Amino acid sequence: MVLVALVLFLGPIPVLIGILGIAGVILVLRFPLAGIYALIVLLPFNALVSQVAPGVVGTAYGVAKDAIIGLLLLAALVNRRFNRAPTSIAVLVALMALLPLVSATFTPSLEQALYGWRNDYEPLLLLVLVPAFVEAHHVRRLLTTIIVTAQVSAALAVATWTQGIQWLLDIGRLPVPAGQRFPTSLFSSGSLTPRAFSPYVAPNELAAAMLISIAVVWCAPGLRTSRRLLLTVLPAAAIVLTESRSGLFGAGILGAVLLARAMRKSSQILSVGFLLIAGVVTVAAATLYIGGALEEETDTSFGGHAASLQEGLAQLLVHPLGMGLGVVGPRALQFETNYHVESYWLLLALEAGPLVLAIFLILLGLLVSRAVRSRSLVGFLPAAALSATLVSQIVLPTLQESPVSFLLWISIGLATVMQMQEKADPAFLSGEQSPTFEPPRRKALSAQGKSRSA
User: Fold this and answer.
1) Which residues contact 399 (CB under 8 A, 6 or more apart)?
2) Helix, strand, or coil here: 266?
């Protein structure tokens, strides 16, 4: 009777969402690992669901990730699992989560401050929450889930790109309502064909997510080289169709880093030398390409990026304590008080002060240092993923989009679990490198079962 009354009073869709929400809360609290799986599978399609089903469904879908993070935090507190993450990472994440709250005093409203914290700092909690609940024998399945989801996302990107302008009409991005700006970021200069972007909100975000996914493909255990190449095809095609310069530069950097990693087995000197040469070549190529584009005025977006960075640096001197939590970045444009800058690093500094940026860079340095010292493929994943998104972080605010940032920090969190396992039990490395990787714990159980049957 109560259910019938709720359906009649609220409608079937809100009631269904409520039932699914209650079931989800129980499931995540009982099995926190299910929450991590849900984040991996649901987040890539957040923007698409919001476009196709605006209103209650789209809002509920978007809020689901915040609810899962909150439930994981609650479960970690109740079960006292925060001590499972490396102390250095946990301390830096705590500082990144708490210090920006000081800049909230400069924010015009509490709603804007909370929204800013949710977009820029909440995703970093995954660096602690993933190690809190994930065991070493879970990592391979979670990485496989990321790879499969990436294949679906890339296939959707290619399929929607073939629809051209019609796809923008189908999801309501065109025609543009009166008073709103035309989505110029979806088109290259002088082109009438949209760049690939779905299921993400924009092309650069799609490219960044695909780069992280490719890093996962090449660092996941138990895959033959032929399978890695096959699984790279769709994400690579999606990156090309985005026409994202940051994506293409990131792909080049990722390739150089992975090659240097492979060379380290034969010669560490050769590996370092190759990486240095690749870095010089990349910087030289980028300088020549950007300089030529600016001189010939074939692409005005480079000038816009440069002007934005220069203006952002000037504003940083004026606001040493930050402009206010939630005031900076594309996500702040929906509020009356906002400032746009085309750099995630400058976004953090302008929003919460240079100290927060310094802590973030220290955190990145720590993650890369741990990855470079790791002897396992998965343990090296943070270095690969962060190097692939380095250009994007410096010149674009792509990490303010939660589908991209959640994917990055979940992947790095999984690598952290394997780094800790490597430190506790170096013997697992021999199995991790083989195509039929089976975690030590399962191998031991399997051996016990065989001895008993014998």
Assistant:
1) 123, 208, 344, 389, 392, 393, 405, 408
2) coil
Tokens at 260, concatenated: 């240097």
194, β-bridge pairs: 187
| Contacts with 71 (C-beta within 8 Å, 6 or more apart), sequence order | 25, 28, 29, 32, 35
* 32-42 helix and 12-30 helix, angle to the nearest 10 degrees: 130
| Count of other CB atoms within 10 angstroms of residue 300 | 11
Between the alpha carbon of residue 254 and those of residues 131, 214, 216, 219, the distances in Å are 25, 9, 11, 12
Q: Is the dihedral of CA 281, 287, 290, 294 positive or negative?
A: negative
Q: Which amino acid is at 143?
A: L
Which long-range contacts (C-beta less than 8 Å, at least 24 apart) are formed by 283-289? 286/249
What would the two tokens of residue 385 be?
């993923």
> Mean pLDDT, 10 residues at a time, over the chain (454 residues)?
63 76 90 96 94 86 94 93 93 96 93 95 97 96 98 98 95 86 87 93 97 97 95 98 93 91 73 60 55 51 64 83 93 92 92 95 94 91 93 91 97 96 72 44 45 42
Contact 66, 117 (CB under 8 A): no
CB 341 within 8 A of CB 308: yes
How many CB atoms sit inside 10 A of residue 106's CB? 18
Q: Which of 222, 176, 225, 170 is nearest to 199 (CA)?
A: 170
Q: Tell me the angle at which helices 440-453 and 136-161 cross, rounded to the nearest 10 degrees.
A: 120
